[in-house]
Amino acid sequence: MELVGDKEQEAILDSLQEWFEENPKFPNKIDRVLLTRFFFCMHKDEEKTKKLLETNYTIRLANPYIFTKRDPTDQDSKNTIAIADIVPLPGLTKENYRIVVHRLTNPDANLMHHAEDTKTYIMLNDCRFSLPDAIVDGAPVLSAGDVHISDMSCHSMAHMRRMSLRILRTMLKFVQEAYPVRIKAIHMVNCPSYMNNMLAFVRPFVSKKVFELMHFHTSGIESLYEFIPQDMLPEEYGGTAGKLADFKAQFLEKVMEKRDYLMDPQYWELEKA
């Protein structure tokens, strides 16, 4: 879907932006690309877009410890980025979906700090949601949804024990009820033998609808290719698109370019008189 639409669409977005920025329940500003994502996520229904925005910012403003006062150059962010990959891959699938890889790169659970890691994860997503997903025929476009690859190879029950139930509950509620992008599938790869125990830990907070989006690849990576073409996957997953480390570096460059935006309280905190 092209980011910039016809006059009618842009007029609706102008109206939504004015409604948002004059609303005392919201921050002073909202990024136009992000606003467009909300609009597309709700199939261009103006009233449903408003409800999704209200849900999103209600959760954000009620939990500032993971949603505000973040900096991609601070030590907490660097620590998370050093032990985890949260990487959008280039291009879109034939269904117009964006593929995003999530994985830990270090199995040491002592390096995990749930609040700080969650704050960084949200910050990286906020950056991505302010950018187009691809350029097609010279025009910026947004995807029709996300396909997530969650690599479980470095996860353990020790990581689960370090989780805060409050943060886990808040984050899963946010992703399931307030995300400005529709999640189309979640592919769990390199699943450990104790995967069922890990699922039992989070299952109370995961809706039936989201659980049905999960695909568990327990007999090797090859079954993933039935859903995602190899030419879109990085070499680490048997693909030919390139190295995940290179895609991560490219994305982090964009995060640094967006640093001022990510840290600007006018976009993320209530400052209205």
TrEMBL record:
PROSITE patterns: CRAL_TRIO. InterPro entries: CRAL-TRIO_dom, CRAL-TRIO_dom_sf, CRAL/TRIO_N_dom_sf. CDD domains: SEC14. GO terms for cellular component: membrane. Residues 74-245 form the CRAL-TRIO domain. GO terms for molecular function: phosphatidylinositol bisphosphate binding. Pfam families: CRAL_TRIO. This is CRAL-TRIO domain-containing protein.
